């Protein structure tokens, strides 16, 4: 009976990182979608620049400057999103490792709680940093939208 109790305790302990694994997975999915949209936006603006340069489309100087600023912001967004995704993958690694180590340590009857706690804290810190980059990217995206709206309202 005690063996079943220990097993339940170990499995319960392994669930805690699993919740954060799920959270990282969800954030990775949405961040990947945001990165795809940012790349699409960058390509669209680049195409507009190409059309202007080849003479297929005319655009006044203020519009060209606005497009250039939009291109810069889209590139910065992509960099922030890539960094956030990297941190989320690292965080995911540490949460999975924590969950796995809980089981391994219990099987081997090791008491190495400092390793488990260290891995878990590193995962949490990476998740925190990724969240910071995501907030920065969101603010930059909103800034780009406001700039474009302001420009469009002043020329129309």
TrEMBL record:
Q: Which InterPro entries match?
A: DUF2721
Q: Which Pfam families match?
A: DUF2721 (PF11026)
Mind listing the UniProt keywords for this protein, alphabetically? Membrane, Transmembrane, Transmembrane helix
Mind telling me which residue stretches traverse the membrane in this protein? 6-29, 86-108, 114-135
The answer to whether the entry has keyword Transmembrane is yes
Name of the protein this chain belongs to:
Uncharacterized protein DUF2721
Please give the organism: Nitrosomonas communis
């Amino acid at each position: 009976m005690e063996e079943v109790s220990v097993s339940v305790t170990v499995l319960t302990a392994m669930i805690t990182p699993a919740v954060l694994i799920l959270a990282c997975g969800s954030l990775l999915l949405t961040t990947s979608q945001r990165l795809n949209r940012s790349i699409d936006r960058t390509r669209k603006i680049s195409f507009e620049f190409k059309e202007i340069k080849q003479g297929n489309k005319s655009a006044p100087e203020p519009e060209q400057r606005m497009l250039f600023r939009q291109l810069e912001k889209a590139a910065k967004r992509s960099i922030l999103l890539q960094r956030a995704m990297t941190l989320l993958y690292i965080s995911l690694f540490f949460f999975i490792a924590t969950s796995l180590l809980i089981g391994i340590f219990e099987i081997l009857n090791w008491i190495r709680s400092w390793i488990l706690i260290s891995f878990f804290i590193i995962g949490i810190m990476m998740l925190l940093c990724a969240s910071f980059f995501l907030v920065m990217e969101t603010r930059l995206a909103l800034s780009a939208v406001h700039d474009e709206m302001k420009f469009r309202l002043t020329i129309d």
